[in-house]
Amino acid sequence: VPWIDWDEWLNVAENVFSDDKERARVAVERIRTWQSRGKVPHSAEATAALVEINCSSDQHSVYELRLMYSMSIIRFVNGIVDSVQQRKFASPISDLAEHAAVPRILVDVRSLFPAPLRTHLASDSTCCLA
Question: Name one GO cellular component term (predicted).
Fold first, then answer.
């Protein structure tokens, strides 16, 4: 595994959800380091992407944020539904997402890309992190 030990994993997990943006940013950097060392669980990658956007939201235009949130949410959904795809032929993503208990609003971001307003995407990203 790319993390040093279970204590490092737990420390990053605690800090990535911190209200302190600096602590969250450092946790995201640690996850990026793990990614450079080897395979990281999809949940950690998706969380890092969404938290990174939240931490840097004041540095981007509304359009850039819409694109970043949309792509991160789409990758979040794809990562989850790919893991539950069991058939020889692909099942509809909406069916797979429902089976995996992914809220429909997150699946719908795929068909609206990048149309939703930033405020909707920000709340959708919070749903991913819950």
Answer: Las1 complex
